[in-house]
Amino acid sequence: MTRDQSIRSDMKSELTEQRNRPKDEFGFYLVASNRELLNHVEKLMNRQGLFGVMDSSGRVHYLVDGRKGSPYAARKVLATAENLIAEQTLHEHHHQAEVHLAVDNVLERYAFNFHLRGYRLLQEMMRVIAGDVSLLNPISKRLYPIIAEKYKMTPYQVERNVRYLFDDLAMREMQTLEDGEYLPFRLLRERDVSLPVARTIVRLAEMVADHLVRSEMFGKH
Predict the structure, then answer these.
(1) Which of 44, 40, 47 is nearest to 17 (CA)?
(2) How many domains does the chain divide into?
(3) Least buried of 153, 201, 212, 219, by fewest C-beta within 10 Å?
(4) Closest residue by Cα to residue 140 from 115, 120, 157, 118
């Protein structure tokens, strides 16, 4: 076996070991002296080869055991970094899936014409806002340009398409109420005949945010 093959094999073993460790496990250790602290650190180093220390900002700093030589330390660093990247990627994919689900669940409550282009633009707005709520202030200067760039449109075209979508929904809701039919969810408020674009986007974004919070709370139980 060549040196490179040996290093790759060792790294694979390190990564497998780390991924097989229990997740969401926390340990608290009370130390009352410098000697106890050093002894405990040494035990952790001997067992794991590295351990993380969290600072007041929540960032984790890893201490790596270099006493066994630089190849050993390098394997520990690379395996830990690869594992952290994999976990972060998985977390991001999971979060994006949750956002898409929340947006769809909120918008599907209402009688939107999903064949209209404005509906796709509104979906994208909700997803983008879920990642950065500051884009709501102001919508015309921050949110519209982002959506416009993605869909090769102008901010004015984005606003016009979404406005048409909301006008169409308002007419659908009023017609349903005039026909005496049951409407479980509606965006049009009492005595209103239209849906202000910016205000309605904010309302929908708040609903998506609430849905995500409830989903997260439910997922923890």
Answers:
(1) 47
(2) 2
(3) 219
(4) 157
Query: What is the rounded CA–CA span in Å between residue 129 and residue 135?
Result: 6
The three-state secondary structure class of 14 is helix
Q: Are residues 76 and 142 in the same domain?
A: no
The contacts of residue 122 (CB under 8 Å, 6+ apart) are 107, 112, 162, 165, 201, 204
Cβ atoms of residues 161 and 84 within 8 Å:
no
- What pLDDT digit, counting tens, does each position of 193-215 carry? 999 999 999 999 999 999 998 87
* Whether residue 62 sits in one domain with residue 115: no
Encode pLDDT of 82-103 as tens digits: 776 766 666 676 778 899 999 9
> Domain span at residue 141?
108-219
pTM: 0.63
**3 state DSSP class of 12:** helix
Residue 102 inside a domain? The answer is no
Tell me how far apart the alpha carbons of residues 187 and 200 are, in angstroms, rounded to a whole number. 8
pLDDT in tens, 41-58: 777 777 777 777 777 777
pLDDT tens-digit map of 176-196: 988 888 888 999 988 889 999
Percent pLDDT > 70 in the chain is: 80
Clarify whether residues 112 and 215 are in a common domain: yes
Contact 118, 161 (CB under 8 A): yes
The domain boundary residue, chosen from 91, 120, 152: 91
State how far the Cα of 51 lies from the Cα of 29, in Å rounded to an integer.
Answer: 14
d(CA 100, CA 78): 33
